[in-house]
Description:
- By secondary structure, this protein is mainly α.
- It has helices spanning 14-20, 25-30, 46-52, 58-74; strands at 36-37, 40-41.
- It has one domain (14-74).
Amino acid sequence: MKETFSKIDGTTLIEEITEKYPELIRPLREYGIVCIRCGEPIWGSLSQVAAEKGIENIDEIIEEMNRIIANKVTQ
């Protein structure tokens, strides 16, 4: 049976992303969204955290995260 995934959107919580898709931690960090700071997880939605960090290309980030997950599922 083919594995399915829940698409990430701006309301997806950072803790949900890191729990379900730990392979996204590195790409998020490369976009400037560090999921763990000082040993503590960063809380909030992907859009909230991006806004707090002044990141404006959230749609590009979401698209990339979903592409990574989809590629993993189809392999």
